[in-house]
Design goal:
Helix content of chain A: 10-25%
CATH class of the largest domain in chain B: Alpha Beta
Distance between the termini of chain B: 42 Å
Distance between the termini of chain A: 47 Å
Largest interface: A-B, 47 and 53 residues
CATH architecture of the largest domain in chain A: 2-Layer Sandwich
Structural class of chain B: alpha/beta
Radius of gyration of chain B: 26 Å
Oligomer: heterodimer
CATH class of the largest domain in chain A: Alpha Beta
Radius of gyration of chain A: 18 Å
Shape of chain B: globular
CATH topology of the largest domain in chain B: Rossmann fold
CATH topology of the largest domain in chain A: Alpha-Beta Plaits
Strand order of the largest sheet of chain B: 5-11-10-14-12-13
Order of helices and strands of chain A: EEHEEEHHEHEEEH
Shape of chain A: globular
Structural class of chain A: alpha+beta
Number of helices of chain A: 5
Number of strands of chain A: 9
Number of strands of chain B: 14
Bound molecules: flavin mononucleotide, iron/sulfur cluster, FE2/S2 (inorganic) cluster
CATH architecture of the largest domain in chain B: 3-Layer(aba) Sandwich
Helix content of chain B: 40-55%
Number of domains of chain A: 2
Largest sheet of chain A: 5 strands, mixed
Number of domains of chain B: 6
Largest sheet of chain B: 6 strands, mixed
């Protein structure tokens, strides 16, 4: 019996039972844009950057189980255009000033914007008012850059077993909260050694006093575009 | 823009009035009543709010501790639902229903009137902390609007005089129990009856009929009937029941559930309200029939928060059924069948009508739609096989249990068997609930309800289809114009752009915020519509709406986002002039108006001379030597 396989952009892609389209592609070194997906955590399916067309229907590659004979379209002008629009939405929804952000070069959002050739934010900026939380001795929370991927929520809940982070609000008012009546990170059980301290794909959860230790220009996505780093662990930030 | 509620100063001050120990004491009876069950978190939060007026921070901490939940999870749930408040909202919380039909009946002017009388700004707590006035999504009273909710109680048929009286009663701080009772009257307004609305059986008739037929034959009748879901998607009910039953039988304990979807959130829909108010026995019979068919021991009815006024009668009915042996151990004398029904209240979230968001809400979480597969028939409530059906679907199932599948299949059309309840409102002489066999033409319905000069009908609410005059020969049926029940008529004098703008704001307000396209896209589109309404729109904004429509349709996580731009797409395709006459130019025009931006500075400096203005006049001025 032949191993199960699907067709990804016309090329056969084998997969093992239970794998999602994203997992199968990652193993084969094929890049499907993603933001809320992380191989170590339960799929979330919220950013929709991984939207692909499977047998003619738009689905999320990170949550859709691979099926034998499935025809999947990934790298097409239509899909990349949709992904670009999603990125633009994420950029205008928060406050992202890449040139002054200490995550620049290590940021998944920024790397995707380069990869998908997003040249402008296009939409009118929302400029939300999101105060920074600097209460914790070791970690700074800059909510301005949160893309609501829930990786910190999942890491703190499923790995650290602390439930430091959660989401509140609804719709465009949805926002990240921490597990304290005061609303301050210092009053939670959060520590720098938590998994959740190291999963944020953008510049929200930042270790203090490390800011520009690694110079801009030598950072992960400065060295090689994201599309060529498939399968390397996200979060492992290798500098010069 | 989305100011973080944690930092609102009025909240911090108010919270100081509550000390942790006394709050925990106050809430103990509530958490104990719900057996400290985290699954009942939403119910607990609702009841805690009834005691405290809102949910101060110490209350969330106390509830989290009592339920042994992370505090952030409790806060996350409290922050999701429109009817739960993290900041004080006053002793009188007035919410005007903001459906387009309420607006057509003058709700906006009535709200302004009340705000002026009571010196309160919309959306803000009055200075004395007595009241707040705001809007809420459709309250399901379109046939007797304009309507509003005061502390969860519904008042219908508002008029200027009534608004003035309400203002007086609030100012005099008269308890709501002493307000005139007739203000709270909700009429059924049944205008056309067919097999369902004519059924006047005693409680339990359908359950007894199902038991007599036995499970297999009952399922056979369901199959024969070809009943399809009345909640929107039109899925075959028999297939759903059969799958759940099979999934449950794979498990040693065979636990599975029946859920009745009484969220009825689609603006313009109110037929389930009438069924719950006057045909509750048929609804509960239907749930029991479904429970019998799949072997469930428990049924849950999810009642939208807007219909909380129906709760006492529903609970009384359930108690009666228990007393009469229709619920509990040995239902109808069957030694091996126990079945009971619980009612859960929602708290103001349209998305909770989506079946998987509903299940999340039933389990006491934020109403965010789940990833599918797995489907609820495989893994639903508490991970067990679950049948989710609309109120009307379950009533139809009860009819089938009594009268058989062949009888039912003989009604309506071949692909759309049986009858359908329509909630008719808008520019018609007789708004109300009409029951028709499937296949009825839009024209006939319009004639029956007295729609004089209709230019458009929104079928199935904002998520549905907008039909223009040339389409009125089409038929209400799954194979032609499917509907969940709403049928909103717009006379020739109505502005279809404003209709679509109302819908755009509805979706932006109700998006759960889970997925990027819907969370951001619905707000972008609502802003775009406002920009056009303000006269600064251009052709490029229309292009923008189409582009976002395509994205939301393709990439949204659930039906809400997928359908969110439908009304704009429809009205743009069919009523384009309503948009174009508002456009400032056919090219790009910025939303940002430099001169407008200077107005604050002008006000502060008390200037209004030409040099304090940008634009044409000012340019000429500056050009002078
Ligand atoms: C955003 C959204 C809102 C919905 N609201 C309702 C509702 O209020 N009532 C309802 O019965 N179904 C609603 N549905 C459909 C349900 O998901 C589900 O299909 C239905 O309850 C199944 O019951 P049925 O097969 O009897 O129609 C909604 C769906 C979506 C996507
Ligand atoms: S803080 Fe970072 S990891 Fe957490 S939700 Fe926001 S973007 Fe994601
Ligand atoms: S489409 Fe909208 S309502 Fe549905 S999951 Fe996405 S954000 Fe939530
Ligand atoms: S990566 Fe798939 S939805 Fe975010």
């Amino acid at each position: 019996m032949n191993a199960a396989s699907l067709l990804l952009d016309g090329l056969p892609l084998p997969f093992s039972p239970g794998q999602t389209i994203m997992e199968a592609a990652t193993v084969a070194g094929i890049f499907i844009p993603h933001l809320c997906h992380h191989p170590e955590f339960k799929p979330q399916g919220s950013c929709k950057l991984c939207t692909v067309k499977a047998n003619g229907r738009y689905v999320s590659a990170c949550t859709m189980p691979a099926k034998d004979g499935m025809e999947v379209e990934n790298n097409s002008p239509d899909l990349n255009d949709k992904r670009r629009t999603l990125l633009q939405m994420l950029f205008v929804e928060g406050n992202h000033f890449c040139p002054s952000c200490e995550k620049s070069g290590n940021c998944l959002l920024q790397a995707l914007a380069y990869e998908l050739e997003m040249l402008t934010p296009h939409f009118t900026q929302f400029y939300p008012d999101r105060p920074v939380d600097a209460s914790h001795p070791d970690v700074l929370l800059d909510f301005n850059r949160c893309v609501l991927c829930e990786l910190c929520v999942r890491a703190s809940r499923d790995v650290d077993r602390k439930n430091v982070f959660a989401l509140s609000g609804r719709g465009i008012g949805k926002h990240l909260i921490v597990n304290a009546e005061s609303g301050r990170l210092a009053d939670t059980g959060f520590s720098l050694s938590d998994k959740a301290a190291h999963v944020c794909p953008v510049g929200v959860i930042l270790e203090k006093r490390q800011g520009f230790k690694e110079p801009i220009g030598c950072r992960r996505y400065d060295l090689q575009p994201i599309g060529m780093q498939v399968g390397q662990r996200p979060g492992s930030e290798e500098g010069c | 823009m989305d100011r973080d509620p944690r930092w609102l100063p009025e909240m911090v001050v108010a919270d100081e009035c509550f000390d942790a120990i006394s709050v925990a004491e106050l809430l103990r009876p509530v958490v104990d009543l719900h057996r400290r069950d985290p699954g009942r978190l939403l119910q607990i939060l609702r009841e805690a709010q009834e005691i405290l007026g809102y949910l101060p921070r110490p209350a969330l901490t106390a509830i989290a501790e009592a339920l042994d939940l992370p505090r952030a999870r409790v806060e996350g749930v409290a922050g999701f639902y429109s009817f739960l408040h993290l900041a004080p909202v006053g002793r009188y919380r007035v919410l005007f229903s903001d459906n387009v039909t309420d607006r057509m009946l003058g709700s906006v002017e009535l709200m302004d009137r009340l705000c002026n009388r009571l010196w309160v700004e919309r959306g803000k707590l009055s200075e004395d902390g007595l009241l707040s006035v705001d809007t809420t999504s459709c309250t399901g009273m379109c046939d007797q609007g304009p309507a509003l909710l005061v502390n969860g109680q519904v008042l219908t048929r508002l008029s200027a005089e009534r608004i003035d009286r309400i203002g007086e009663l609030i100012r005099a701080q008269v308890a709501m129990a002493d307000w005139p009772r007739e203000w709270f009257h909700v009429a059924d307004n049944i205008r056309r009856r067919d097999v369902l609305l004519d059924a006047r059986w005693s409680a339990g008739e359908a359950v007894r009929a199902a038991v007599v037929r036995g499970r297999e034959r009952l399922l056979g009748e369901m199959k024969l009937s070809n009943l399809r879901g009345r909640g929107g998607a039109g899925f075959t009910t028999h297939t759903k029941w059969e799958s759940a039953r099979r999934a449950a039988s794979d498990d040693a304990q065979g636990r599975c559930y029946v859920v009745c979807n009484a969220d009825e959130g689609e603006p313009g829909t109110f037929k389930d309200r009438v069924l719950l108010a006057s045909y509750a026995d048929l609804v509960f019979d239907g749930m029991s029939v479904a429970g019998f068919a799949i072997g469930a021991a428990k049924g849950l009815l999810y009642l939208r928060g807007e219909y909380a006024w129906l709760l006492p009668a529903l609970l009384e009915n359930l108690a009666r059924r228990r007393h009469n042996g229709l619920l509990g151990a040995r239902v109808c004398g069957q030694p091996d069948w126990m079945f009971d029904i619980e009612v859960h209240l929602g708290a103001g979230a349209y998305v909770c009508g989506e079946e998987t968001a509903l299940l999340e809400s039933l389990e006491g979480r934020r109403g965010v739609p789940r990833i599918r597969p797995p489907y609820p028939v495989q893994e639903g409530y508490q991970g067990r096989p679950t049948v989710v059906n609309n109120v009307e679907t379950l009533c139809k199932a009860a009819l089938i249990a009594v009268r058989g599948g062949a009888w039912f299949a003989g009604l309506g059309t071949k692909q759309s068997t049986g009858t359908k309840l329509l909630s008719i409102a808008g520019d018609v002489a007789s708004p109300g609930v009409y029951e028709y066999p499937f296949g009825v033409s839009v024209d006939q319905v319009l004639g029956d309800c007295g729609a004089g000069n209709a230019q458009a009908v929104q079928v199935s609410g904002p998520s549905g289809t907008c039909l223009a005059r040339h389409e009125f020969a089409r038929r209400i049926a799954f194979e032609d114009v499917p509907t969940a029940g709403a049928f909103t008529v717009f006379g020739a004098h109505r502005d279809m752009f404003e209709v679509a703008r109302n819908f755009a704001h509805f979706f932006a307000h109700e998006s759960c915020g889970f997925c990027t396209p819907c969370r951001v896209g619905t707000t972008l589109v609502a802003n775009c519509m406002d920009k056009i309404a303000n006269g600064s729109g251009s052709q490029s904004d229309i292009g923008e709406i189409f582009r976002i429509h395509r994205l939301l349709h393709a990439a949204s996580h659930c039906g809400l986002g997928q359908a969110a731009c439908n009304p704009l797409f429809d009205t743009l395709s069919k009523f384009r002039p309503a948009y174009e006459r508002r456009l400032r130019s056919l090219d790009f025009a910025p939303a940002f108006d430099l001169d407008q931006a200077l107005s604050v500075a002008r006000r502060m400096t008390g200037r209004d001379d030409p040099a304090a203005h940008f634009g044409l006049g000012a340019g000429v001025q500056r050009g002078e030597p």
